[in-house]
Amino acid sequence: MSTHPVIQLENEHVVQSYKRPPFVLSHGQGMTVYDTDGNAYQDWVAGIAVNALGYGDPGFVAAIQNAATGLIHTSNLYYTAPQAELAALICEKSFADRVFFTNSGTEAVEGALKFARKVAYDNGDTERKEIVCFTGAFHGRTLGSLSITPKDKYQKPFHPLMPGVIVAEYNNLDSARAVISSKTAAVILEPVQGEGGINPATPEFLQGLRELTRQHGALLIFDQIQCGMGRTGTLWSSEPSGVTPDIQTIAKALGSGLPIGAILTTNAVADHIHPGDHGSTFAGNPFSTTVAKYVFTRISEPAFLANVRDTGAYLKERLQEINSPLIKEVRGRGLMVGLELTTDVSPMIEAGYQNGLLMVNAGPNVIRFVPPLIATKADVDPLIDKLTGILAGAKL
Q1: Structure pTM?
Q2: How far is C-alpha 276 from the geometric centre of its chain's CA atoms?
Q3: What is the set of domains in the chain, with CATH numbers?
């Protein structure tokens, strides 16, 4: 089906909760996607940090084909080998003792909040119900996850939200210290904020939160849905700090396009979750976990992570070389980089489409670069050439 009939069909029959550019993507290869009119776009969005292996990866395709020959779904009433094997692999490569699978990142966050409340309930802490989150956070759009995403534009139409949420200032330990107490069930944050503008937490901030949560008997939850799974050049973005949480949420890159997420926990948390406390019909199905096992194995390889670090460092270096009065700051780690401008980035993203680039914002003034993790230095150079021209042509 050609471009205009698809757009018309979508406009007539799909809930209009998204603003899309006027083309229809049809297929891709490597770092490049194509629309139905044959136009090519270098992809610096990766489905919002999801398509870790890019497009048409032979091993990924083979894993899907192999998974399709087996069971697709059984529900969680029964044991299946792929779920158990993927859980074991994730535990081997993380702090976790146990894993609960979900279908998305938002579901993982919702489950993490429930787990924290359940631990407090089992311990008889009837007053320990508060959740501390941070300015600039984005944890999802369902009611619980939205409640800890302190952005008025997202929250206002959906009040009343989940009670007991307290917002502290990101990267400000004094602000966190002022609100974490014996009433705190959990403290949740992204070690590198995505939607909030590509803001890395300092090691000192993460270390201080770990100390505060232990001091007050609260759980520490890391949301690594966007910043985890190799995105920052280490498997987990919190690794440079040396801090491990009690609960961690992951999704996005775990399936490299297939819908799968997970809640990682210590035994101290998992021991409080019993049959009936939480569940999901589709989560952890044999198809998704078979494919995710291949993806996780690839991303965990030292050479794969080294390429993310090297390419990410080169991306930051080349972005910093652009001579434009519009550029305020370049920040981030690995292939999670933000270019903050002094103006709204929407026109630059629109201009990118005309120049064969897919880019996405992170707030009104930041262009977010979260490409497939297979990106190389050779992919960076054409981006910089085109972006330099786009910024030079922008109205000041």
Answers
A1: 0.97
A2: 28
A3: 3-54+302-392 (3.90.1150.10), 60-300 (3.40.640.10)
